[in-house]
Amino acid sequence: MTYFGATLRALRDEADLDQRTAATRADCTPGHLSRLECGRRPAPMPATLRQLAVAIGLPVGPLVAAAILDRWSPADLAEAYQADPYLRRLLRRGGRS
User: Per-residue pLDDT tens for 9-30?
Assistant: First the structure.
């Protein structure tokens, strides 16, 4: 399991949603959601992250952070944080716009 997958599953469980309900709300199949949670698919693109966050009823920030941590090394993350003011704002606000 990836960090993103574990985070997605934990957030879905905290929202008391089963995979089928969350998948329907996120406009994806339960199988796709399962593959994301089990780490058989990489963290999705930003539009899908937003759909998942809306389906779970949370800001997108925690999912973006988990996706970043799966894909980037700490050095890459530090560089992006310094270079991108939008990313800094997003992470400081916990994903709230």
Answer: 999 999 999 999 999 999 999 9
- Is 45's pLDDT higher than 90? no
Give how far Cα 82 sits from Cα of 30, 51, 73, Å: 37, 27, 14
Q: Which fold has domain 3-92?
A: 434 Repressor (Amino-terminal Domain) (1.10.260)
The pTM (predicted TM-score) of the whole model is 0.74
Domain boundary assignment for the chain: 3-92
User: Could you give the dihedral angle defined by the CA atoms of residues 95, 89, 64 and 48, in that order, rounded to the nearest 10 degrees?
Assistant: 70
* CA-angle at 63, arms to 58 and 68, nearest 5°: 155
